[in-house]
Amino acid sequence: MYICMCNPFTDKDLDKALKDEGVSNKTSQVYKACTGGEKPCCGTCICEINDRIEAHNSEALLMAAE
Ligand code: FES
């Protein structure tokens, strides 16, 4: 599923970026990692990216607590 249409990348690209320890979980850094350094254009996808970052961080916290 495409997350961003302006600089196209998919949910799989986003998951890969979130799992990459070299990419911080800041929205701008994740976006750049998914697009090869591009900046967002319309911003429509930012909420979805933030939701996925939040879900990833919650999952990581749960894993660390176990
Ligand atoms: S859909 Fe991602 S910047 Fe426009």
Would you give an account of this structure?
The chain is mainly α and 66 residues long. It has one domain (2-65). 58% of the residues lie in helices and 8% in strands. The protein is built from three helices and two strands, in the order ββααα. The chain has helices spanning 11-19, 27-35, 46-65; strands at residues 2-4, 9-10. It has a two-stranded antiparallel ribbon with strand order 1-2. Strand 1 and strand 2 (9-10) form a beta hairpin. Helix 1 (11-19) crosses helix 2. It is elongated, with a radius of gyration of 12 Å. It starts with a strand and ends with a helix. The model has no long low-confidence stretch (mean pLDDT 93). Bound molecules: FE2/S2 (inorganic) cluster. FE2/S2 (inorganic) cluster binds next to loops.
Topology, number of strands: 2
Query: Strands of the largest sheet, in order across it?
Result: 1-2
Largest sheet: 2 strands, antiparallel
What distance separates the N and C termini? 31 Å
**Mean pLDDT across every amino acid position:** 93
Sheet/helix structural class: mainly alpha
Question: What count of helical segments does DSSP give?
Answer: 3
Total discrete domains:
1
Q: Which molecules are bound in this entry?
A: FE2/S2 (inorganic) cluster
